[in-house]
C-alpha cells in the first residue's frame, strides 16, 4: 500500500486566483514586469507542492498560465498576428 498525497482543490483554486490577480494588477505593463512578478509565485507553488503527487496539476497550472500570457500579449499588441507576438 502507498499513500499518495495530492494538493487540495482549495489550494489549487487559491494558486490560480493568485496568478489571476497578478495578471489583473499588471494589465498593460511590460512582459518583463510580468515575469518578474510571476516567477517567485510559480517557484513558491512548485516548491510547496513538490512533496506531493502533482504532475497533472502542474500541467493544468502551466496551461492556465500559458492561456493568460497569450491573452496578456494579445492586449498589448491587438493588431499583430500571434506569430509576430
Report on this model:
There is one protein chain. With 85 residues, this protein is mainly alpha-helical. The protein has one domain (12-76). Helices cover 67% and strands 0% of the residues. It contains 3 helices and no strands. The chain has helices at residues 9-25, 31-48, 55-76. Helix 1 packs antiparallel against helix 2 and helix 1 (9-25) runs parallel beside helix 3 (55-76).
Query: How much of the residues is beta strand, in percent?
Result: under 5%
Number of domains: 1
Task: Summarize model confidence as the mean pLDDT.
Answer: 91
N-C termini distance: 49 Å
Strand count, sense and closure of the main sheet?
none
Shape field:
elongated
Total E-strand runs? 0
Structural class: mainly alpha
What is the gyration radius calculated from CA atoms? 15 Å
Number of helices: 3
The H/E string reads HHH
Low-pLDDT sequence parts: none
Helix content: 55-70%
Amino acid at each position: 500500500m502507498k499513500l499518495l498525497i495530492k494538493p487540495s482543490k482549495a489550494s489549487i483554486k487559491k494558486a490560480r486566483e493568485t496568478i489571476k490577480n497578478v495578471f489583473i494588477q499588471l494589465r498593460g505593463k511590460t512582459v518583463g514586469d510580468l515575469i518578474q512578478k510571476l516567477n517567485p509565485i510559480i517557484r513558491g507553488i512548485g516548491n510547496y507542492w513538490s512533496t506531493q503527487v502533482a504532475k497533472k496539476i502542474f500541467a493544468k497550472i502551466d496551461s492556465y498560465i500559458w492561456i493568460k500570457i497569450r491573452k496578456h500579449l494579445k492586449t498589448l499588441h491587438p493588431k499583430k498576428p500571434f506569430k509576430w507576438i
